[in-house]
Amino acid sequence: MSVPPVRRVAPVLCALALCVATWMAPSAQAADAKPWLDTSNSFEARAAALVAQMTLEEKAAQMQNAAPAIERLGVPAYDWWNEALHGVARAGQATVFPQAIGLAATFDVPLMGEVATTISDEARAKHHQFVRDGQHGRYQGLTFWSPNINIFRDPRWGRGQETYGEDPYLTARMGVAFVRGLQGDDPVYRKLDATAKHLAVHSGPEADRHHFDAKPSKRDLYDTYLPAFEALVKEGDVDAVMGAYNRVYGESASASRFLLRDMLRRDWGFKGYVVSDCWAIVDIWKHHKIVATREEAAALAVKNGTELECGEEYATLPAAVRQGLISEAEIDDAVTRLFAARMRLGMFDPPERVRWARIPYSVNQVPAHDALALKAARESLVLLKNDGLLPLSRDLKRIAVVGPTADDTMALLGNYFGTPAAPVTILQGIRDAAKGVEVSYARGVDLVEGRDDPAATPLIEAAYLRPSPDSPERGLRGEYFRTQDLSGPPALVRTDAQIGFRWDRGSPTDNLQARGEAGPGQGVPNDPFSIRWGGQLLPPVSGRYRIEAAADDGFRLYVDGKRVLDHWTNADRLRSDGVDLDLEAGRAYDLRLEYYDAERDAGVRLAWRMPGAKPPFEEALDIARNADVVVFVGGLTGDVEGEEMTVNYPGFAGGDRTDLRLPATQRALLEALHATGKPVVLVLTGGSALAVDWAQANLPAILMAWYPGQRGGTAVGETLFGDANPAGRLPVTFYTADQVMPAFDDYTMEGRTYRYFRGAPLYAFGHGLSYTRFDYRNPRTDARKVAADGRLRVQVDVANTGKRAGDEVVQLYVRPLKAGPGDPQQELRGFQRIHLAAGERRTVVFELEPQQALRRYDEARGAYTVPPGRYEVRVGGSSADVRAHAPFEVIAK
After folding, report:
1. Which residue range forms the structural domain that includes residue 860?
2. Which of 601, 641, 656, 807 is an active site residue?
3. Structural domain contains residue 699
4. 641 is known as an active-site residue
5. 11 and 93 in one domain?
6. 277 among known catalytic residues
7. pLDDT for 207-249, tens place per residue?
8. In total, how many domains does the chain have?
9. What is the CATH number of the domain that holds 660?
């Protein structure tokens, strides 16, 4: 029996890294038999031809994120769920850029495009490798649920870190650049599908998101919550939009006729597909109680415009058809949109036609990508305060680095991240940059009160471990298994110097591949897997040791064959336990640590505290007293702020924040360090505004690092020592600790963000300092009057009057000279990040279109208008640092 030509050619093409999702490249005969493989027809016609061959049950299954294969039609399994917020996430090795809020702080649109293009290169390469390996699961596809363009209206929201900040214009510009970088520039095939989420009024509280009904004024809706979505649809041509969990004006955001039919498709002309947030369709009947049954919820969502569900409620669509709740023709329309999207990604075409299919797997984490991550991290750092202490001198003898996020990889990553090859913590970055300066370190305190903090105890260093009695190596012998119970032959055996790993969604093989220690296809799965480490422990001194292990999920620890710790059960987070043991110097103890991961995040640590070690707080003060300068690195991590968390700590609830200050543990240590009389630099990690009033009043320098990605530590070290000149700007307002905020669940914009906040902020939107100085001169417009549908050119001269080169973010704001009720105080309408050498002067030019820049939603008319009257352009270094003004007038037609 002969093998059809398509079967013979596909493996060869796959070997050349040219695979796409189905790899059933059509011959002429195949195209005749299967018209959906005929590349001479449009994607829409081909998709319709394919859908016409499906049963109702098959169609419904294809409308769920985990779409099964239809073998008789040559349709492979496909999972639509993938993440790429600041790098390919949850799919193993990938370059990790600064978290989205940090990327926004760069105020650098071209850089955002470079970052997104790099992410899409890695995503394409990874997808084709997965297909070559016969994998079609979650986090292995080409449809990515990023970016998050919700407005970060309230600093308490734990997911604000995922956004581009509080301003609609900045969000739109960054979002459009990100979408274009993901989706590519090919006129025929999409590189990836980007997804604008979560349409549209969605920014906390996390605990209420499944039953909350947001009812903003129509003016706030159209002037604040919608513009970025509109820009991504009209300018970015985004292929997908994700609905939110909550209701908007009584309708589920994932089944809203107003949002999805009337606005998205009719008013904006959206041609792509809509996906629900995960299990949002369940909420329609279970929590919102808009309808009574699963079938009614599924039918309502599809009829109102959600073609794809993340979840399983759409499995009831055949029953909904039989009940008369929805027609099969409506389902056909939805499934056709979905298959047209897959075809537009090249999944059903010969690979030689798809340019993106030629990206080799080796592109992942190449040095150029690491260099771009470093550039992005440098540009994201915001110098909040500097009384002249920075940059630090290398004539210093000793620097004390103190704080709970200084040596914590999680402080680099935020949430929705991949596995970086060699992440550089802030402590390591400072040590690398310090060169001849002695750097000592003490953690000092836990991140927050009441948290079982595995990172509080130092890892056992390689010098005190050996894989076997006669081995010259240091560390423990690790056996990595494809199974959860340590059964079968190990897929990989190696020596690990220390046991301290965090894998996003579980990806041990890729973490090792990233170091060059294992190649593709060695078969340690994302979930589940297990590892056994064995060897000897060599205590340096005699006395009582505290040995601790921590893991997500199960772990067991044995010393001299005795099981001293046993937590062989699943866990929803990294949990730790310890044992006190009397150990003798000069003796070798047999040591064995067993670990398994069941699903989702994975991590494991083996740590100890030696005899005579001082309490961490006292240890921190001791090294501070012996130092010339103290660098305190603290703030937040994705372990305490994020998406719908189940564990609460003082100052946090469900992933949101109830206190904008630093956690109490950190405040106490920071004040004690200041009391030593040594100068203290505060470096903050986190994804949201922090009320550091005390530090602003008492410390000489404060640097905001966000979650700066895999090279964040390098960027911080370089900046502290002046090898890099900071120029990041705040994409959110930093409020004072005593500022009374509007109710968290009130979506009214008055009193929020720099546009509507009437008080004095701690640090204004757009704020950021430099190691040099910039001067603004000669603001001018090309006309004093402009029509609403006209164009206005604004120019200003900017000079670097300092002694070193640096970047300046030139920001243009517009405000009406006579504000009406509900008008914002001013609005960002242009920005450019420019590099100027010492003494260099440049003319910066902005183009304003009043029809976009000055439009206001008129609730009485139900439409946008451009109010005629007198306005002012304001140009400067932040919303509170305006250096140049120029008036103009908008005239009525």
Report:
1. 774-891
2. 641
3. yes
4. yes
5. yes
6. yes
7. 999 999 999 999 999 999 999 999 999 999 999 999 999 999 9
8. 4
9. 3.40.50.1700
